[in-house]
């Protein structure tokens, strides 16, 4: 599952998505960059409210008003999706780009059978007739490990368990053989054992289809199990990016280090553990410098200036050049600035 | 499900008994001598006695009620004291007309109400939404008869497009149907709007969009099917109210429906006819509610178990 060096399947650059509320603009996603290649899994991790879901909904162009994609580009195998018209992009949605959601219990329509809901995308995108679509839907249900798929196809969502429903969601998402699958907390609502099964399923399906996967979670345990690369998000920005091994070996950003402390108990929500004191600042009190400043144990004067996401050049110990971090500590300036402070 | 229907049906029995009791008491509660009131001041003693005999007023109350019920079961509603015609024969054709009127009123209410509600909900807080809801408020607060008169004035008298009164031709349907349907349309529009707004925020609507379902189908298939569940109840209830609320519309447009029949019967103090009409209307009301209840349950079953 190594990254290919061809054009990435998905390349997001400078993505900005804001909500224009009565109290002003809320910058939910503020200049996010990342890319995912074929057969590769990128994990996006971060606390609640860091902008993970809005990032993924932006890619699907499903951000609801008053939210709006303000800037940046989203490239799918080289085509800028944001330049497409609504109807052009509708042809991609559920076809070349698919998404599964956190809540399997409410993500299926209660008044239609499971079979109907799986065949719908096939009928839209693959233009299959009713019978063929149904046949294909049953095949998909079987593929995602649903026992007795012919029978289940006739059932309504409420007759299925949460884990089964998430499998149905996966069947829907993969029915048209997408190049990119976005999974926004696909297992958060499920039991631990079911969680592992679902993650395993996604992995296996990826291996056979070669699709790119974007997995969103606030659970570093899920990242460790599934991802090849990680982007850590904080307050609408990517604060650290690295391949998964590197990140776990040597987390750089103080925020990432804070998240790591939660790993020994990854069965418990990070949010509940509160390893990092404080919460994500609201848009009104967002610091103009480093957004993590108020919670950072290393914060220094230089942090009043907004750091950029860059390859670390200082103070990072292990010698390698993968990854990027948005923190002054790993820059030359840090040494000069802190030395100056010591002198004073 | 069957158990539910049976239980619901058993619950109807006391209601039906209540209805018959009230209808029965209409004659009993007439102050003074019922026969005198019906027959009028000029009636002779023999005529009065004859009437008491016909109506069984000389029997003890419980016997009267028993006879009344027994007749009712045989669909015998007694005779008019004016024309001696069986009440059933008077009521049946009129009931049919009222049913037709209520049906067309309901069509107006449902079509306009659903469309208005959907239009408003799919563009929440827009001028379209505001405009639709303003119409709904106006529609609700306008008295029925006044709306009827205004429509008649505009379309029949000023423009001459539609007949002012009567029933039977298709042109005669429009004005009464709009008159009857407006308030219902307003209620249904509001209900549809709020149900749609709720449903449009559901995860499965987002799933439908994520699948690439066209926005039109997202609204009319995925969302509306779910939003309809509470709306159906309102629609059913409307039908019941329509039947009983037809009186005013019928008199504005001179339609010979049940409403007219009961008004005429009251003014002629023809109480058996009043009684019969009340029973028919009340039972229809009770039955529609029963059907709506079951329908709601059928539509809702999948969600309820959830
Ligand atoms: N409808 C909205 N109106 C205003 N602001 C919103 C809205 N939806 C999201 N936001 C803002 O976007 C930010 C990011 O939200 P997002 O759902 O992407 O967080 P997340 O990282 O997915 O968190 P979680 O782990 O809770 O799912 C929120 O903190 C919030 O301020
Ligand atoms: S830039 Fe400064 S405040 Fe921000 S994380 Fe680094 S050390 Fe902490
Ligand atoms: Mg989220």
From TrEMBL, chain A:
<dbReference type="InterPro" id="IPR027417">
    <property type="entry name" value="P-loop_NTPase"/>
</dbReference>
<dbReference type="InterPro" id="IPR050388">
    <property type="entry name" value="ABC_Ni/Peptide_Import"/>
</dbReference>
<keyword id="KW-0547">Nucleotide-binding</keyword>
<dbReference type="Pfam" id="PF00005">
    <property type="entry name" value="ABC_tran"/>
</dbReference>
<dbReference type="GO" id="GO:0005524">
    <property type="term" value="F:ATP binding"/>
</dbReference>
<keyword id="KW-0813">Transport</keyword>
<dbReference type="GO" id="GO:0016887">
    <property type="term" value="F:ATP hydrolysis activity"/>
</dbReference>
<keyword id="KW-0472">Membrane</keyword>
<dbReference type="Pfam" id="PF08352">
    <property type="entry name" value="oligo_HPY"/>
</dbReference>
<dbReference type="InterPro" id="IPR003439">
    <property type="entry name" value="ABC_transporter-like_ATP-bd"/>
</dbReference>
<dbReference type="GO" id="GO:0005886">
    <property type="term" value="C:plasma membrane"/>
</dbReference>
<protein>
    <submittedName>
        <fullName>Peptide/nickel transport system ATP-binding protein</fullName>
    </submittedName>
</protein>
<keyword id="KW-1003">Cell membrane</keyword>
<dbReference type="InterPro" id="IPR003593">
    <property type="entry name" value="AAA+_ATPase"/>
</dbReference>
<comment type="similarity">
    <text>Belongs to the ABC transporter superfamily.</text>
</comment>
<dbReference type="GO" id="GO:0015833">
    <property type="term" value="P:peptide transport"/>
</dbReference>
<dbReference type="InterPro" id="IPR013563">
    <property type="entry name" value="Oligopep_ABC_C"/>
</dbReference>
<keyword id="KW-0067">ATP-binding</keyword>
<dbReference type="InterPro" id="IPR017871">
    <property type="entry name" value="ABC_transporter-like_CS"/>
</dbReference>
<feature type="domain" description="ABC transporter">
    <location>
        <begin position="10"/>
        <end position="260"/>
    </location>
</feature>
From TrEMBL, chain B:
<keyword id="KW-1003">Cell membrane</keyword>
<feature type="domain" description="ABC transmembrane type-1">
    <location>
        <begin position="95"/>
        <end position="296"/>
    </location>
</feature>
<keyword id="KW-0533">Nickel</keyword>
<dbReference type="GO" id="GO:0005886">
    <property type="term" value="C:plasma membrane"/>
</dbReference>
<keyword id="KW-0472">Membrane</keyword>
<dbReference type="InterPro" id="IPR045621">
    <property type="entry name" value="BPD_transp_1_N"/>
</dbReference>
<feature type="transmembrane region" description="Helical">
    <location>
        <begin position="12"/>
        <end position="30"/>
    </location>
</feature>
<comment type="subunit">
    <text>The complex is composed of two ATP-binding proteins (NikD and NikE), two transmembrane proteins (NikB and NikC) and a solute-binding protein (NikA).</text>
</comment>
<dbReference type="InterPro" id="IPR000515">
    <property type="entry name" value="MetI-like"/>
</dbReference>
<comment type="similarity">
    <text>Belongs to the binding-protein-dependent transport system permease family. OppBC subfamily.</text>
</comment>
<dbReference type="InterPro" id="IPR050045">
    <property type="entry name" value="Opp2B"/>
</dbReference>
<feature type="transmembrane region" description="Helical">
    <location>
        <begin position="133"/>
        <end position="155"/>
    </location>
</feature>
<dbReference type="Pfam" id="PF00528">
    <property type="entry name" value="BPD_transp_1"/>
</dbReference>
<feature type="transmembrane region" description="Helical">
    <location>
        <begin position="227"/>
        <end position="253"/>
    </location>
</feature>
<keyword id="KW-1133">Transmembrane helix</keyword>
<protein>
    <recommendedName>
        <fullName>Nickel import system permease protein NikB</fullName>
    </recommendedName>
</protein>
<keyword id="KW-0406">Ion transport</keyword>
<feature type="transmembrane region" description="Helical">
    <location>
        <begin position="101"/>
        <end position="121"/>
    </location>
</feature>
<feature type="transmembrane region" description="Helical">
    <location>
        <begin position="273"/>
        <end position="296"/>
    </location>
</feature>
<dbReference type="GO" id="GO:0015099">
    <property type="term" value="F:nickel cation transmembrane transporter activity"/>
</dbReference>
<feature type="transmembrane region" description="Helical">
    <location>
        <begin position="170"/>
        <end position="189"/>
    </location>
</feature>
<keyword id="KW-0813">Transport</keyword>
